[in-house]
Amino acid sequence: MSPLRRKTLIGVLIALVGWALWWVIPSEEERIRHVLEQARASVSSEGKPADGLALLARMGQLTQCLTRDVEIQVDVFGHLSGNLSGVDEVRAAAAGMTQQFPGLIRLSEIQISELMPTSAKATVVASINTGSPHGQNAQEFELRFRKWEGRWYISKVATVQALRTR
Fold this sequence. Notes:
By secondary structure, this protein is of the alpha+beta class. 39% of the residues lie in helices and 37% in strands. Helix 2 (28-43) packs antiparallel against helix 3 and helix 3 crosses helix 4.
């Protein structure tokens, strides 16, 4: 094999390996979106068992998405408002919310910004069907993320925009 052909083959192989790694290894934005989806799935109770053990398992899944010192400052869907501090308070409030609002929570309009090596910000519109005659209620939130030991965690959630009906 000629040296030019060998160099070309090596170049093509390096390009293929690089493309495969880019395709297989998720980006930081995709990792943050995965944390958001995991948190959403843990508090969305539609079609899931409502018994204590299933709820406890889902709340355990939620705590895997949060920092220990997480802060929540919200007026959620016009019904729940206040400030929560720490993973235990958030877990207890989330368990109550899933029982009060058994609807499916949906996330849309996810915009990730200020992506730094160990922190990020996301703006998310969350909607839930509360059973009201107006349909789904939607609200915009700002989430702050921290990266620790290679994994993203939600460290702060705050309401951005007042309640609106879709």
